[in-house]
């Protein structure tokens, strides 16, 4: 079923086409047909990159790229659709083709760097980013630079890039979350807690952010749940996270209590929490702490 916007645009061109045919002007008919095809292709490409099934989008762009090998927009669409289909290594290969074509831009290089990072080619991503002029400053540029700096444990540089990226978008939730996770992994749970809270001010329903916040707090021995928006099921999951974190820190009694709370809170049977609690009950405390 075709997208409504696509149908409206096509209908408009059909009216124009019928008018041209009425005048019997073959040249105008040809131009009208060309306009119809152009609108068809543009709208279909947009649909394939947004609401279409990722694998169907890949097939569409692969077929169209063979029919129009010189169209850089189609090649870009293929690279992006491969990312959506969770095939970053293949996407990187296509981006390499894109940046070698006339009309390639620094955004295409960023697309390549992003695909390289997703496929764990950190060295390749660093090399690609280095080819982009330093004056080309965009949100994606700083987001990717922050990730590369993180991977090399260049914390000051990473913090600077994260901060800059956050200031260049109206939707910085994911950046704050990534920054917070970076702080958590480098042993700064208090700093991570602040960043996860900041992320939730922009995306209060994202469970991943909530879970990360609980992890950051539990890493500091703060096992009570923060005052944030949550469903009953989410509350149970967060109690479970806090319980496991407490046990990992050696606070086994508190951890068992949190696991029991998670089981009691969940509106359905909480299999993971139940298994964890039973395992604790059958294991000597000393062994658990060790």
UniProtKB/TrEMBL annotation:
Task: Determine if Signal is one of this entry's keywords.
Answer: yes
> Any idea what this protein is called?
Lipoprotein
Q: Give the species.
A: Thioclava atlantica
User: Which residues are the signal sequence here?
Assistant: 1-16
Keyword vocabulary terms for this entry: Signal
Q: Which InterPro entries match?
A: TPR-like_helical_dom_sf
- UniProt entry tagged with the keyword Signal: yes
